[in-house]
Amino acid sequence: MATATAKLNADKTRALGAQRAEVSKLTTYDWVALDKRGKRMKGDMPAKNASLVKAELRRQGMNPQTVRERSKPLFGATGSTVKPGDVAVFSRQIATMMASGVPMVQSFDIIADGQKNVRFKNILLDVKQNIEGGAALHEALGRYPVQFDELYCNLVHAGETSGVLDTVLDTVATYKERTEAIKKKIKKALFYPMMVLAVVFMVCLIMLLFVVPVFAKTFQDAGAQLPAPTQILVNASEFMQSYWLVVIVVIGGSIAALVIAKKRSVKFAHFLDRMALKMPVMGNIVRNSAIARFARTLGVTFRAGVPLVEALDAVAGATGSVVYGDAVKQMRDDISVGHQLQLAMKQTNLFPNMVVQMTAIGEESGSLDNMLFKVAEFYEEEVSNAVDTLSTLLEPIIMVVLGTLVGGMVIALYLPIFKLAGTF
C-alpha cells in the first residue's frame, strides 16, 4: 500500500513537472481583435504559436486583427527579483479575495494576471498549479523559501489548520506592510547622506587626480615654496595618481570582507550588532526596530495559533538583529522548561521594563497578542520619530564635512598664490 502511494505521489510530481515545463515553453502574444459588435479589444495570451492564438480568439467569437509576439525588454526581463513589498501586496490581495469568497485557485489566477513582475507572476502560477495538484497552500509556498520564508509558511499552515486562513492572511498582510514601512523609512533617511558622501568622495577624487596636478605644475614652474597644507595635498595627489586603482580595490575589498565576515562568522556579526546598539541615535533606532519586529511577529504567530515555543523559533530570525535573535532563542529554551514569557524576557536584559510589564499583563489577562501589538505600535512610532531626528541631525553634519573637505582643499591650493602675491 505504501509503495502504491509513493508511486502515485511520484507520478503526480512528474505530471506537475511536465505541466510546468510545458507552460514555460509557451510564448506570450499580444493581440488586437474585433468583437461581434465591431468593438476593438486587446489583450495577451500564452501559446505555442500565433495561429493557435487566432484560433482561440475565433472560438471566443472575435475577429483577430493583429497577433504579435511580445517583445522582450531591452535590458532583460522586468521584475527579475521579487521584493518584500511585492509579497506584502500579494498577501493583502489574497486575503481580501478569500474573505470575499473567491476560490483560491481563481484568486491566484487573478493576482498573477495583474502582476507586472514577470518572475513573481511565474511563481504565483506555479503555486496555483501545485494547489490544483493537491498540495496545501503552505506546501506550495514553501517551494520558494526566498520569497516566502519559514515564518510566512508557518503562519499560513496555522491558518489552514485552524480554518481561519483568510483572517491569518489578513494579519500577515498587515505585518508585512508595517515591517516594510519601517524598513523603507530607515532606508529613505540614510539614502540622502550616503549619496552626499558618495558625491563628496567623487569630488575629492577628481580634484586629487585632475585639478591638484595642474596647480602643482604651476607652483613648480614658479619655484614657489609650498606651505605644509598644500604640500600634504600635493603628496596625496601624487599618491592617488600612482595607486588610485589600489585604493579603490582596497576600499571595495574591505567592504566586501566585512559583509562576508558578518554572514559567515556569528561572533563577528554579534560584535557588529553590539556596536550598532551602542551608537548614539542609530543605536536607539536599531534597538527599537528589533523590539517592534519581535513584538509584532510574536503577536501575529500567537494570534494565528502557533504554539509559543515554535513561534519563538520563527521570531528569532525576524528581529533583524543577531543580538536579539540570540536572546529570543534563550527565551525559547527558558519557556520550554516551564518559565513564563515575561520572566524569560527579563533574564535577557535587552527588553525595557515597559515591554516586560505589558507582556506580563497580557499573559495574566489572556490577551497576549493584543498587548504585543500595542508594544509593536509604540516602538514603531518611536522608530519613526528617531529616524526623523536622525535626518535632522545628519544634514548639518554632512554640510560641515562637505565644507571642511572641499573647502580645505581649495584653501590649501590657493595658499601659495596668496603667499606669492604677498611678496610683490
Automatic annotation (TrEMBL):
Gene3D superfamilies: Type II secretion system (T2SS), domain F. The keyword Membrane applies. It is found in: Cell inner membrane. Residues 90-213, 294-416 form the Type II secretion system protein GspF domain. Pfam families: T2SSF. Its main location: membrane. It is a multi-pass membrane protein. The chain crosses the membrane at residues 190-216, 243-261, 397-417. InterPro entries: GspF/PilC, T2SS_GspF/T4SS_PilC_CS, T2SS_GspF_dom, T2SS_GspF_sf. Keywords: Cell inner membrane, Cell membrane, Membrane, Transmembrane, Transmembrane helix, Transport. Belongs to the GSP F family. This is Type II secretion system protein F. It comes from Rhodanobacter panaciterrae. The gene is pilC.
